[in-house]
Amino acid sequence: MKPAVRRGLLVVHIAASVGWIGAIAASLALAVVAFVTTDPAVAGAVYRVLEPLAWAALVPFSFAALVTGVIQSLVSPWGLIRHYWVLFKLVLNVFAVAVLLLYMQTLAGFARAAAGGGAAVPSLSPVVHAAAAIVLLLIALVLSVFKPRGLTTWGYRRQVEPARRSR
After folding, report:
1. Is the separation of the CB atoms in 65 and 16 below 8 Å?
2. pLDDT tens across 121-161, in order?
3. For the chain, what are the domain ranges?
4. What distance in Å separates the CA atoms of residue 87 and residue 154, rounded to the nearest whole number?
5. What does the CA dihedral 119, 122, 126, 132 come to, rounded to 10 degrees?
6. pTM greater than 0.85
7. Rounded to whole angstroms, what are the CA distances from 93 to 34, 120, 126, 144?
8. Where are the alpha helices (DSSP H) in the chain?
C-alpha cells in the first residue's frame, strides 16, 4: 500500500480513536452529573440522553477505531499479531467494544426507567464503566506511542525464517 494511503488510514484511525475517547469523556461527565445531583429531573434527563449518545457516538467510534486499527495493522510493518503491543491493543479494543455493546442494555434500562416518569435512582454504574473505558483507551494510547518491544512467537518465526533461508 502506498505510504500516502497508509498515512491517510492512520489519520482516520486516530480520528476515530480520539472521537471515541471524547464521547466517553462526555458520557463520564454526564454520568457524574446524574450521580451527584439531588434533582431527580436532572438525573432522569441525563439517563435519557446517555443511551442515544452511546448509539450515536460511542458505538460508531468504537467500531471505526476497531476496524481501522485492524486494517492499519495489516498494511503496516507492525502486523496484527507480530508484536505484543499490537496484539494487546487489539484485545483491549475488542474487549471494550464487547463490554460497550453489552452495557447498551443497561443504558436502555436506565433510559426506560427515567422516561417512565418515576424518580431516577442515581447509579454509580455509568460512572464506573465510562472511567474504566477511558483507562483502557489511555492504555492503548500509551502502547501506540511507546511501542514496547517484544515479538510474539509467530512474529519471531516470521522474522527469523527469512534470515535462515538466505544462509
Report:
1. yes
2. 789 999 999 999 999 999 999 999 999 888 888 878 877 77
3. 3-165
4. 11
5. 180
6. yes
7. 27, 31, 19, 13
8. 3-36, 40-53, 59-75, 84-115, 125-146, 153-165
